[in-house]
Amino acid sequence: MPESAPAAAAADDGALVRRSMSGDIRAFELLYRKHVGRVHGAILRIVGMNHARAEELTQDAFVRAWQKLSGFRFESAFSTWLYRLGVNVALMDLRGSGNEQAVEDEVLEFAAGGDVPFCAGERADLEQAVAKLPPRARAVLVLHDVEGWKHEEIASELGMAVGSSKAQLHRARGLVRKLLGAAA
Amino acid sequence: MSEHDFQWRRQLRDLSGPAQPQRDLWLDIASRIEAEQAAVPVAAPHRRRWAAGLAVAASVALAVLVAGVLQRHSAPSNTVVAVRPSTKSDPVAAMAAVDEQFKQVRTQDPRLAAAAVELDAAAEEIRQMLQQQPDAVFLVGLLNRTNERRLKLARMGQASS
């Protein structure tokens, strides 16, 4: 019965969330242990595989989840709510990281100068290439191509137009392809 | 979608999935949550208890003074007066009880009537503000000063009658 495992996990989460809401920090620790991998994985990719920064932001995400727990309405899976909150913490950090737009545009212009064919490589090469992207372009590429978000969702979270999200993605893909081609 | 694009999408999608932190973050998270919990509840209720305590104490002291005025003002059969505030845990209710007692000693002297009405209205307004801001100690002080004036006026009314 393939559906029974996720359903059971969700039911377990519900009980743990209710206990956490009443102040049971042990229950919240169980939620942390269960979901930290997914939250940390997404944050790590958004911050370009910077492990120290990703760990700080993962901590922030769980502290914020504890603070906002009373706002969780059980309308979605807790794992989804937590994952979105974690991604939002990473994106807020990215938004607050200063005036990098001019630099990004220069790098992306360089990337956009030609259609480089995809060059299959090792997973580590691909991770490194994505990590080298400017932060906003990396966030768009990670959220769309890795995490499977839609442009509308990305644009909303990053405070940009849908067209800008599409343009950033196109340019980011071009830059990754160039980086992979240079590494090959 | 070309073969290259398909391969590209698949490889990028393969980057998804969970990744464990290189160290256990829970201890740091738990310390931050506990520090935050310790910081938040201590400050506000402490002030609130202090303000509530002040308000109740002030109400009790005032009730005794009003009772003194009442005893002198009333017939001998009324010498035993309920001066206790209605509840120790609710300063607003305690002050409302004192307010009722003030109404009993309100002067009938027309020269003092306008001042009495004004002081009653002021006390009522402060009591309402205290209901909205139960931890506002300054309001307790303001109410005390207003009630002292009401008491003084009651004594003046008693002397003139």
How would you portray this structure in words?
The complex is a heterodimer of chains A (184) and B (161). Helix content of chain A is 75%, strand content 0%. Chain A is mostly helical and 184 residues long. Chain A is elongated, with a radius of gyration of 18 Å. The mean pLDDT of chain A is 85. With 161 residues, chain B is an all-alpha fold. Chain B has helices at 3-14, 26-73, 91-104, 110-132, 137-160. In chain B, helix 2 packs parallel to helix 3. The chains are: A mainly alpha (184), B mainly alpha (161). The interface between A and B is medium-sized, with 34 and 27 residues.
Keywords:
heterodimer; A: 184 residues; mainly alpha; 9 helices; 0% strand; B: 161 residues; 5 helices; 75% helix
Helix content of chain A: over 70%
Kindly, what is the distance between the CA atoms of the first and last residues of chain A, rounded to a whole number of angstroms?
A: 45 Å
Rg over C-alpha atoms of chain A, rounded to the nearest angstrom: 18 Å
Indicate the low-confidence ranges of chain B by residue numbers.
42-48, 75-88
Mean pLDDT of chain B: 70
Distance between the termini of chain B: 102 Å
E-strand count of chain A: 0
Most extensive interface = A-B, 34 and 27 residues
Q: Which structural class do the helices and strands of chain B define?
A: mainly alpha
Mean pLDDT across the residues of chain A is: 85
Instruction: Bin the helical content of chain B.
Output: over 70%
| Strand proportion of chain B | under 5%
C-alpha-based Rg of chain B, rounded: 31 Å
Most strands sheet of chain B:
none
Question: What is the count of helical runs of chain A?
Answer: 9
Strand content bin of chain A: under 5%
- Residue stretches of chain A low in confidence (pLDDT < 50, at least 5 long) are none
Major β-sheet annotation of chain A: none
Tell me, briefly, the overall form of chain A.
Answer: elongated
The assembly state of the depicted protein chains is heterodimer
Strand element count of chain B: 0
